[in-house]
Each structure stands twice: as C-alpha cells, then as structure tokens.
Write a structure and sequence with these properties.
By secondary structure, this protein is α/β, with parallel strands linked by helices. It has two domains: 128 residues, Rossmann fold, CATH 3.40.50.2300; 64 residues, Orthogonal Bundle (Arc Repressor Mutant, subunit A). The chain has nine helices and five strands; from the N terminus they run E-H-E-H-E-H-E-H-E-H-H-H-H-H. A five-stranded parallel sheet has the order 2-1-3-4-5, with helices on both faces. The protein is globular.
Amino acid sequence: MKDYILIIEDDVLVAENTAFILNQAGYLAIHIIDNLSDALNFQKRNKITLIISDINLHGVNNGSQIVKELQNNILTPVIYLTAYSEEQIVDDAMSTNPIAFVLKPFTDRQLLVTIQIALKQIEEYNKPGAIDKPSSREIQVIEQIAKGLSNKEIAGFLFLSEHTIKAHRRNLIKKYQLRSSSELIAMSVRLKWINVNNFG
C-alpha cells in the first residue's frame, strides 16, 4: 500500500501547484480533496502518511475540522497552509497538534523544507525501539526556549513562522506530559538533549 500525502485545499490552483511542487521533488503519491466526505472515504482505502491542509475551506467544514475527524480514526501528522494568522483560527488548529504552519504565499523551498522536516520527524517517531527523544528541529527550539527567547524571536532565528514555534512548544509539552516550558527545559538538561553551558 502506498504512503500518501493528502492535500486538503479548496483553491484548485493552490492545490494543483502544491501537488506539482511535491511531484517535482519526487513525492508521487499525492491525493487532493476539499471536503470531509471525500477525506474519510479516501482514508478508508489508503494509508495517509502526512496531511497538508488549508485551514479554511468553503466556510463550512474547515481544514482543521476535517483533520480532527481523520485523526479520530488514525493519528496523522499535519502541516497547515494558510493565509490567516488570527489567534482564534490558529488556536482551533492547534488542537490537531500540527507539525508546522506555512503562511501563504509560500515559496517552493519553504514548502519542501517543511515537508522534509515533517517526514524526518515521522520517520524518527516510527523507528521501533528508538529512544523517544525530540527531533533535531525540536531540540533547536528547546535550546532557544532555554535561552529565554520569545516565540517571535525563535521564529526569526530558525526562519519559521511564529505559529510553528507555538505548535512545537505545545506538542513537546504534551508529548512528554509536562506542565510548562520550564519543566521541558529541566528534562532536556537532565537527559542531556541540550547543554546550557554551550550557550553564548
């Protein structure tokens, strides 16, 4: 069974352009949908490795709601492509534990780098018997948190969106069942994921 990347997008041009970028990079198993019914039907018949979704679709079943329904069946990582940055919209999407947000308009490189990082994280998480430790990108985020940088400052330093940093912080705290960023830093130091003595 193929491992599909599912694109959830109601703008045909954006959907086809995203699929073209992926195809050119060698990702050939791509499927595009724009509604919940088609998404659920496709999930029943295929294995979805990664979801790339717009947040707002038709003003009815928005992207994050479709992702929630899919994740209720099988927990699947998601990247959001969006032109929206309002806190309420982003907060609703946060409940699906996204790997990243890519703000429209985006370049081919921005999209591909985000997807490569996401697939690498998925590969690391799925390794049998692997130590359940953060990905290299997550460790970079933890290091910057430990330095006392704000989400906005970390985003600028790592060339990511501020929403992506918020998603990383939230996901890490949830993943390790912690209560705060301070506990995340303490655990990272204790397990030698980061070395605060190397901070400048």
